[in-house]
Structures are given as C-alpha cells and as structure tokens.
C-alpha cells in the first residue's frame, strides 16, 4: 500500500513537471500536430514524450501516458468552454473527500443563476451525499445557500471542495440504528458550528460593553508580553471575531477534525483580511489554512497556496524583523517561534513538489528537517520539568526558548509565570477602575456609550473625560439601551426651570438634557452661562422612555431560555481558548517529522520510482 501511494505521488509530480515543460515551451496539445481534426492523438506526441523523457531521465512510455492524459483533459476543458459560450452552462470541478476520490476529474455542469442551495442539492444527488450533511467551499469561502452562484463570484471552470460532516464509513453501514446515530452526529457537528458563531459574536459584543471582570466571562486582546492593546472600536470587533474563529479552528485542528476546522479558519480569514500583516496571528492563520487543505488531501483545490505561504513569510518578517531581531528584543529569544518556520518550510516544500519543482522542494524540505533537529526535545528533559510541577506544554516551550537547558528552562518558566500573574493583576485592576469611572459618569446622567467614548479620548482619566463631555454636550445624545441612564431622560418641569431663573438659556439647556438639572448646570457653568454654538436643539422626538408593557414580562421565560443557550455557546468557546498565551507555538512535531521524511523520500526517489 505504501509503495502504491509513493508511486501515485510520483506520478502526480511527473504530471506537474510535464505541465510545467509544456507551459514553458508554449505547446498546445489540443491543436495539431498533437491532436488531429477528429480530436484523436497525433503522431507528434510520441516525439514530444521522447524529448521530455530524455530530459527527465524517465521511462518514455510513462511520460507518453501522462502527456496523453493532459491532452485529453485539455480537450475536455476546451469542449466545456465552447459549451459555456453557446449555452451558458458552466462546468465546476468537484473535489470529493479522499474516500470517494477517483483518478479522473469530477465535473458538474450547471447554470450560474441557481442558488447555493440548489448547487448543494445537485452535488449531493450526483455524488451520493445527504445534502444537509455536506458543506461546499468555493474560492476559499463557504457557499451561501440563499444567494445565487453569480452573486457569490462563482464562474465557469471554478473548483468546489466538498466537506463531509459524517464519518467516512457511514456509506457502507446499512443498519438503521447506526445510520440514525450518524445523522445525529452530523446534526450535532452543524450545531457546533452555529454555536461557535453565536458564542464568538456574544464575546465580541461584550468587549464593547461594560462588564464586571470578576463575574462575566469576556475576551481581551493582548500584545506579545500579555498586556491589553488599545484598538479603535471599529477594528476591535473584527479582530476579536477573527482571532476567536482562528482559535476555534485551531482547537479542531488539534483534534484532527479538519472538515470542521476549515470553515472556522476561512471565517477567521474573512475578518482578518482588513488588518492584514500587522500582527503575526495573520501569518499563523495562513499556515493553518494551507495545512488544513493539505491534511484534507485537497491542496490542489487551493489555487493560491503559494500566495498564502509567501504572505505568511512576509508577515513574519514584518513582525519579527529581518533576522528575528525585533522578536529577540521583545522576548529575549526566538527558539519557540522557529516552530512556525518549520511548518512554513515544510508546506513550501510540499507545494513545490506538487508543482513539479523538485529542487526547490528538496531545498525547503531540508531546511524543515534541519529546524526539526534543532527543535527536537529529549523526552527525559520534559519528564524532569514535569517532576518540578510544570506542564508538558510549559516544558516544551521553555526548553525551546533555552536551547534545551533544563535549569534555564525551569527559571524561564518560573519568571514568565510571575510576570504574567503581575500583568493579569494590573490588567484586572485597570478594568475595575474603568468600570468605576464609567459608573461615575453614568451617575451624572451620561449614557454608557458617551462615558466610554469620553474616557477613550481621555486615555482613561476621569477628570479629563468629564471636561470633554462638558465641552461637547452633544455627546450626551450618544444614547444606548441602558435603562439606568434612560430613566433620567424626562421633560423638564417648571420647578426645574425656576431653579435657573438667573440664566436665560436655562430652558434650552434643560430641554437638551431632558430635565437633568445637574448636567444642565455643569454645562452652562463650564461654557460661561451659554450652550456651545454647535449644539443644535432638536426638541422633537425627545419623549421619555416608554414604560414596560405587559408583554415584556410575558417574554421573561423565553428570555431566560435564550440566556441559557447563549451561556452554553459562550462556555463552548471558552473551553477552546487556550490558557497559555503561546499555545500556538507549542507542538510535539510528531506529524511534521513523519511528513518531512515522507516527502524527502518522494524527492529522492523520483527517478527510480518512475523507472
């Protein structure tokens, strides 16, 4: 079985190499003298096979066979192009799960005005799936069922990958009970994906809310030292969702659930692209996406694998410095991050091999093997650190940071634990002070939204935030749904107006602040007895907050149920958010070791295996 697998991989390499030669020599196999008027093979193809077999030092018959396969596919593609021009019927190449894959391409003809749901149904019917238990990925995006193919940018000759949510053995099981269990399993997987989406949305929304850090779970974004980063609100939610989807996808990768991991990773990519290469998370995400396609045995379906890997390399350079000098300056070492470069070189080697670039593949794979030797950890050293009370993850990361020295690693881990404990204590205190400052401003009658914006502009200084609010009374109109602040918004009474009899603009001020005497007095005093000229009095629509209707209390039970479901979704996300901030750098490298050896054997044995 291993020999057949190696031979098949070698044949794929030869096909890629021959395709490369044909492209370089500008040879069009679908035209004479390689194809006659009846679309049959021409005699010139044999001469071409002789030329290329000599160039590759390979078996001439094998080369001729592969060139003929390439010619037939080119004719088939040309026929599809002509058909599309005359009838508008597009051809989509379907990439099936490995267990259903055959030697030849799987093509599906369809019109592009149909919906994503109709295409999914067509694929399910044609290839024997239950349509509710598959997902379709086209152009690195999940197919949206409610939109047409045209609206989603689907074109003629596009590639579509089928992700199966059920176990691969289910098609051979006939027992009704077993099939029912598998259907339930597929439904559970789909629900997990939907809960992931909802849980991340809730946590991202909480990042913009005012929550008590002692009682309410929330996510925060920190730099490489563990300290919170100030990010504009417009970017914060997108980054939160991007990182959340990425972490969830990584959790599925660890469990080798690649079919569920990929949609999460692609969703992360969708939110991340606006931030591009300003953070190394984006580079890691690109590696994870390519790795996921590779583990699904669908790397050929990812047309821009090279682009993603180059983008990751560029991003690492921007974040870490030319020779990792910025990383060493921040962290004191770069041993742990070498794991990312090993994965990068390995994937570059694999991609080059499948593109027919044998020498480039050998170069990258050897670089990956060299890094593996540097990063290999003696199990006895991990055991020694476990005996000291450290976790296996801390042991691996510490040993790689300290070049395998156990004593240095123990000191490094201990120091890092103490640093993180202090940083977390400081960050928690910072959040507590922010919550107190927001509550102070709310107590004066300002909305939560206005208080947060003023404190953001004042870098957290309460006195400066109050000055900003007093100088910009229009900020008071930054309303939210907070009932505590809405309760203060009432029409001014005559008694309140009488209190300001010495001020001519008192009635206007009270109307602006809807009867809030304290805010009206402070603003008039701060602005020399008058309102700023840019405050436009909009007295219409300044009605008080509606009272609670009977239906509000009637919906309490439903709200409680929704709250339980949201709590479940949030908890499921939090379970997969790693405790260690460098979890993405931790790897046993067991899979990488096997794959490096496997592909190096392919590269070394290309000629002998073909002969």
Summarize the structure.
The protein is mainly α. The chain is built from 25 helices and 5 strands. The chain has helices at 2-24, 44-56, 60-87, 116-127, 176-208, 233-254, 258-272, 280-295, 305-320, 325-331, 338-354, 358-375, 379-387, 392-401, 406-443, 448-457, 462-471, 483-486, 494-499, 506-512, 517-526, 550-554, 556-576, 590-604, 606-610, and strands at 90-95, 106-110, 134-138, 141-142, 159-164.
What is this structure's SSE topology?
Layout: H1 2-24, H2 44-56, H3 60-87, E1 90-95, E2 106-110, H4 116-127, E3 134-138, E4 141-142, E5 159-164, H5 176-208, H6 233-254, H7 258-272, H8 280-295, H9 305-320, H10 325-331, H11 338-354, H12 358-375, H13 379-387, H14 392-401, H15 406-443, H16 448-457, H17 462-471, H18 483-486, H19 494-499, H20 506-512, H21 517-526, H22 550-554, H23 556-576, H24 590-604, H25 606-610
Parallel strand pairs: 1-5
Antiparallel strand pairs: 1-2, 3-4, 3-5
Subcellular location: Nucleus
Keywords: Coiled coil, Nucleus, Repeat
GO cellular component, one term: nucleolus
């Amino acid at each position: 079985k291993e020999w057949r697998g190696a031979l098949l991989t070698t044949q794929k390499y030869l096909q890629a190499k021959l395709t490369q030669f044909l492209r370089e020599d500008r040879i069009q196999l679908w035209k004479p003298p390689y194809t006659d008027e009846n679309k049959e093979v021409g005699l010139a193809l044999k001469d071409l096979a002789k030329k290329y077999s000599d160039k590759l030092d390979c078996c001439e018959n094998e080369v001729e066979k592969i060139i003929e396969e390439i010619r037939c596919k080119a004719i088939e593609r040309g026929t599809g192009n002509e058909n599309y021009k005359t009838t508008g019927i597009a051809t989509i190449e379907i990439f099936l799960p490995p267990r259903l894959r055959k030697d030849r391409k799987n093509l599906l003809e369809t019109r592009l005005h149909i919906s994503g749901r109709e295409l999914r149904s067509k694929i399910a019917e044609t290839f024997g799936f239950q349509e509710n238990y598959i997902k379709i990925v086209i152009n690195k995006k999940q197919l949206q069922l409610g939109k047409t193919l045209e609206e989603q940018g689907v074109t003629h000759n596009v590639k579509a990958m089928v992700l199966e949510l059920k176990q691969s053995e289910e098609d051979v099981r006939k027992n009704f009970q077993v099939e029912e269990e598998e259907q339930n399993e597929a439904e559970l997987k789909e629900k997990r994906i939907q809960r992931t989406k909802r849980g991340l949305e809730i946590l991202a929304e909480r990042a913009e809310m005012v929550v008590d850090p002692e009682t309410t779970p929330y996510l925060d974004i920190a730099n490489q030292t563990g300290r919170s980063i100030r990010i504009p609100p417009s970017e914060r939610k997108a980054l939160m969702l991007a990182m959340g989807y990425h972490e969830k996808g990584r959790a599925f990768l660890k469990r080798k659930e690649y079919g569920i991991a990929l949609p999460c990773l692609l969703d992360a990519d969708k939110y991340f692209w606006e931030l591009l290469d300003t953070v190394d998370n984006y580079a890691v995400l690109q590696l994870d996406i390519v790795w996921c396609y590779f583990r699904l045995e669908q790397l050929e379906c990812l047309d821009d694998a090279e682009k993603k890997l180059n983008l990751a390399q560029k991003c690492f350079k921007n974040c870490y410095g030319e020779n990792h000098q910025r990383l060493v300056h921040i962290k004191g070492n770069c041993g742990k991050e070498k794991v990312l470069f090993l994965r990068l070189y390995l994937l570059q080697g694999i991609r080059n091999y499948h593109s027919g670039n044998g020498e480039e593949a050998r170069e990258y794979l050897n670089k990956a093997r060299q890094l593996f030797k540097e990063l290999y950890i003696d199990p006895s050293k991990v055991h020694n650190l476990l005996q000291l009370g450290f976790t296996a993850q801390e042991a691996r990361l510490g040993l790689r940071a300290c070049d395998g020295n156990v004593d240095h690693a123990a000191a490094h881990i201990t120091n890092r634990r103490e640093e993180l404990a202090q940083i977390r204590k400081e960050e928690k205190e910072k959040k507590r002070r922010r919550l107190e400052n927001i509550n102070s401003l709310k107590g004066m009658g300002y909305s939560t939204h206005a208080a947060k914006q003023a404190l953001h502009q004042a870098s957290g200084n309460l006195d400066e935030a109050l000055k900003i609010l007093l100088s910009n009374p229009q900020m008071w109109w930054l309303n939210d749904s907070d009932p505590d602040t809405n309760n203060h918004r009432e029409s001014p009474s005559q008694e309140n107006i009488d209190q300001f009899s010495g001020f001519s603009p008192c009635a206007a001020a009270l109307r602006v602040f809807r009867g809030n005497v304290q805010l009206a007095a402070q603003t008039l005093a701060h602005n020399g007895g008058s309102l700023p000229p840019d405050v436009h009095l909009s007295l219409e629509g300044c009605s008080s907050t509606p009272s609670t209707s009977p239906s509000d209390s009637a919906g309490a039970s439903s709200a409680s149920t929704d709250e339980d479901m949201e709590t479940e979704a949030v908890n499921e996300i939090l379970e997969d958010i790693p405790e260690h901030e460098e979890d993405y750098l931790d790897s046993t490298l067991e899979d990488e070791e096997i794959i490096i050896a496997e592909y190096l054997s392919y590269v070394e044995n290309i000629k002998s295996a073909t002969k």
